[in-house]
UniProtKB/TrEMBL annotation:
This is tRNA N6-adenosine threonylcarbamoyltransferase. It comes from Lacticaseibacillus suilingensis. Belongs to the KAE1 / TsaD family. The keyword rRNA-binding does not apply. GO terms for molecular function: tRNA N(6)-L-threonylcarbamoyladenine synthase activity. It is found in: Cytoplasm. CDD domains: ASKHA_NBD_TsaD_bac. Residues 23-308 form the Gcp-like domain. Binds 1 Fe(2+) ion per subunit. The gene is tsaD.
Amino acid sequence: ELILAFESSCDETSVAVVENGVTILSNIIATQINSHKRFGGVVPEVASRHHVEQITDCINLALAEAKVSYADLTAVAVTYGPGLVGSLLIGVTAAKTVAYAHHLPLIPVNHMAGHIYAARFVKPLVYPLLALMVSGGHTELVMVTAPGEFAIIGETRDDAAGEAYDKIGRVLGITYPAGKEVDRLAHLGQDTFHFPRAMDGEANLDFSFSGLKSAFINTVHHADQIGETLDRNDLAASFQAAVVDVLVDKTMQALREHPVSQLVIAGGVAANQGLREAMTAALATQFPAVDVVIPPVRLTGDNAAMIGAAAHIELAKQHFADETLNAVPNLNFARA
Ligand code: ATP
Ligand code: MG
Ligand code: FE
């Protein structure tokens, strides 16, 4: 079984060929980061235009690298939400066109399911499992009760973790996206500022990162006003410690309430070294039987291979769309 998968929800145009949901034959990722850097974030109009320019090349490269032709394909899959409407529409239109022209079934995929199913490239998943979904737009604890069945048990009430990284990174003079560089600086410093750990220890599984972001910005601005220079490494380390402490504590709380044998960490922020280290250490002492599954760094960010992995599950269920498929920018899992 071969799936041609499309991903264009934000600022990466990606097309992949995935075999049986677990083997990546190709995964072409055209990033637009350099076009958005000077604006400090993704500009929707610029993103759509790039997707249009890149998508045909991505399809051709994905087929060529996988050494397959349209005739070999079983189905076409595409991210239809959540994301930027203009970006999503380019992938949806391209996928519909290929499906129609080559008489292939069309599989609509939720981008968040894709992030979680990137873990399938590491090892087989065991249900029910818990996923910590941490990305640029989402921070959620998700129970995956069975293949393709998702329920949110906790989520951020304001900013996403990746968004907070990008916003405080800007204050440190780091270009978008800032997560990777803040992570690097954090390993060179110490938690000397003790920023707030919002909602930690509360009897719910929700998160809040906007207070932390404000505390960080206020600290830096106050120092600026009195002509003091703060240590960038310590600022990064203090911010990261606050984010990671809450993510780890809430995940441990979720594991106490929802026994599972696997924990998946998904989304762009799953690349974070501090998070990987702290989560692994906490599991070793509190839940030694829980197996943590984290995709390799190149598969934590947006890519079409993860969409192919999630589509394999939907193909088995014959969950197909027709030519009326539309982008759903605010698509979300249901709250448990
Ligand atoms: P969503 O998936 O919610 O729609 P998105 O697709 O924009 O949002 P991703 O591409 O999954 O998000 O992740 C991008 C985010 O990951 C950015 O905010 C980036 O700063 C962050 N990020 C990447 N690497 C790291 C890292 N090492 N540490 C922390 N954050 C990181
Ligand atoms: Mg991105
Ligand atoms: Fe994403």
